User: Fold these one by one.
Assistant:
Number 1:
Amino acid sequence: MLLDLSDSYVERNRSSDKKLSTLRGRTVINLFFENSTRTRTSFELAGKRLGADVINMQVSTSSVSKGETLIDTAVTLNAMHLDALVVRHPDSGAVSLLAEKVNCAVINGGDGSHEHPTQALLDALTIRRRKGRLSGLRVAICGDVLHSRVARSNIHLLNIMGAHVRVVAPKTLIPSGIERLGVEVFHDMRAGLKDCDIVMMLRVQTERMQGNFIPSIREFFHFFGLDYAKLEMAKPDALIMHPGPMNRGVEIDSDVADDVERSVIREQVEMGVAVRMAVLEVLTRTEGG
């Protein structure tokens, strides 16, 4: 199981001898069409700790920015005989298209507002290590659900693992028909957080908003930003999560984000390297067959 393998890598990453030769001789390319510090860096670190040759392709300076299509890019990459390709792209479905055209493992590092699978895996690992389980936990995913690939991937994974998922947001930031994914919908933060074990905040993605989704940042924080007053509705030992980067004072109060007892935001970053090591190992091992 991916989470079990990830667990073993957490302990390895905390040791003085972090370098392995599991993927020695394998080549991994990070192809990021969107800026990302956490995801790209953790994939790079994961590949290098497994002994792979890791190359970061800067799309802004590549042929793609000069008009090369995704198909052209795939043909070029195939000629390089890669073993794994990590892709982040602003368009939903772009990663799937590339996966059909290249002869190597393709890992989704986030595509548009669609999915971010490794973020959901690292969130699940963080929760499981703190709570000992995922099944039966009540998880509230709060904020800009409409534009969040993190929310979608977490909903799918948490439901599969037996958690009870709620989404909490203003009506303008809830996707139409999201109830079909097996979640409870709340438009009131206090009601949505009541008796929750996990409070997962989402970044307000103003760059994806075409129109007036929220009246103002100040009003959004008043009604939907996480502060201690709203957090009182959750269980006393509820964990606070955020995929980053955080907009402090918009979706989360700084004191809450930095709460050493309840915030696991820094742990999420640590778990990201371990999870991406596990994903790279399993997929390249399968490809190498």
Number 2:
Amino acid sequence: MSIFNKFPRTFWVANTIELFERWAWYGFFMLFANYLTGSSDMGGLEFSQSQKGIIMGVGTGILYFLPVLTGAIADRYGYRKVLAIAFVIYASAFALFPQVSTFSAVFIMYIYLALGAALFKPIISATIAKTTTQETSSIGFGIFYMMVNIGAFFGPIVTLLFKEQSQMIFYVSAAIILVNFILLQFYKEPGRKDNTLNDSTNTSSEQTAEGDSPIDTTDMPSENMSLLKSFNLIFRNMASIFKDPKFLVFLLIVAGFWTMYMQLFFTLPVFITQWVDTSALFRFFETYIPFISANYSPAPGVMDAEFVTNFDALYIIALQIAVSTLVMRWKPLHSMMSGFLVCSVGMALTLFSQNVLFTMVAILIFAIGEMAGSPKITEYIGRIAPKDKKALYMGYSFIPVFLGNFLAGIISGGVYQSMSDKVMITKLFVAEKGLRIQDGLSSNEYFNEVARQVNLSARELTDLLWNTYNPSSMWIVVLAIGVFTTVCLFIYDRAISRKK
């Protein structure tokens, strides 16, 4: 019997829900960095790189911290109910996003959207863990990761078609997320009977002694009493990871991987937009697939940065099953080490050159490392998690992603702004040359005016700034983070092996 026949129906329904959720998410998220920092004449908000880093780093970090709480809530109150609430928040947040434009308002709206994602994430991960076995887990999580990337690929491909009206990016994502309300009708909670609490909740209730809540609940309704006890238990369980130093160290190490990995979304689209010459790719598509050059080009001879970055998802769709099959017999830690190192080299190289063909090869290297290492993180935690607390422990798996996003925001914000941001480098060039530029210009208009005053084309000025100020030096920072993480994981693995 084929291994694919060993997966229950709920496994496939959950994967399909994940596909559409990721479609909606990446449909806006891949474009988000350039939306925040882009020139106003192109629909961007013209926030600084540091402001972008705060919004994306802190906001996405919170998104990945909240599953520590929401996983336990889902265990208690039911996966289907929490999924429905998540989709309502998703859809309303996407619909409201185009109405805000100030830094504070955008930040608050992104936190609201993050709440919906935080409610969603641990449920699907737990469903995959509960519907796979020791035999099928590697392929199962590989399929799951492939579904993630199918959604991640089609999301930007669709929304980029509407980039002329930036608000449509969010409306399209809102429409896609509504599909999951239909799929939810076919979702059956694994290991859970209707109208009853699952085993993990029953066990948890028994472990919560009567009257041990520090809050006076005498006059509260019984439903509120139950909720307070549930949150009390959540924080107890959160504290329990500090009783396992080895697991805590593992989570901290993996945070380094996510710091490096998130540059794919936080930094690379901006870097490509500002520095990479995509004309060779444009000419290829103009010759052989004119539909692409016509619809994924913001200007003649230029390809959308998000279209180029999206090759990562395309590579994973094509190669994930093959890579998962190759590493399925590897120990998760060994696969992670190999994947993290390859991933680090690939991401560093994406920031190394102005040649788009070089960038695409670097993204391929990055994707291979990502496929080998990233799914194994979830698989590793899924294996060691108690069977009756899968969602709770999957919530723990998001802790390093929370830390990684926060640190990635710093790297893509203040660090990128000081080392590689084209806007800041252009202003430095203007100051050094003593040029006078009128106020009130958009970022693009400002750059073009500088080019005019020094008698250069926009491309020639970009090359001059590249050769003079060396913005590609960011690759050293990214590579250092990835290599350090790999070395730490190697030491961790050796220490664990010696204690067995």
